[in-house]
Give the backbone structure.
Amino acid sequence: MRRLARAAGYAWKRCRRSLRGQRDPAAFAACQARLRELHRAEARHELAVVYVDECRFSRQAPVPYAWQRRGQSPATLPAVRGSGGHSVLGFWQAHAPNQPLQAYVRAGARTADLFVLAVTDFVQSLACPTVLVLDNASIHRAHVVRACHAEWAAKGLTLLFLPPYSPELNHIALLWHRCKHYWVRPEDYQSDHTLLQRLEHVLNRIGKNYTVTFA
């Protein structure tokens, strides 16, 4: 079978999960420009830009492979989630010199109520006006979250929602990619316990032993 597929011009390679075809290019470009403007203000020490997102780490294989014709773009599949594992909610100042990360780890999925608790805890440590960049996940748009916007704003936190289907604009996605594919090692997936141990080890050293360079 493998020999026949290769003879027909196919190769066994990774499929890509992508939402690019569903987004609004104009809204994407406008938000991209807005983020560049915010980072220039951040470089002048006028404010902080913090990216927030949840990432699930589990022993379930996350990367699908399939036979695909050589020379063509990788096949795309719907971006779906499984269950279980460890959920990490991270607040990351990606473009600060030491890239500080504030992370909350728990088993299973995170709810809107837990998101509110995490943001409320995060705002207690704000040292300057802060823009929190986040996607349109249902827990970010829930009524219980919207009810806290004014309270957070009074403490110096402004929320900036990304356009739908624009994960590339959330820079913390790159941090999660590095964690999953480089910093959490294959042997760390032996059990849920070893995975959690390694995950906490890495998260506690972001900005010191583990850094991300932006062009």
User: Anything to note?
Assistant: The first strand starts at residue 10 and ends at 14. Confidence is low (pLDDT under 50) at residues 77-82.
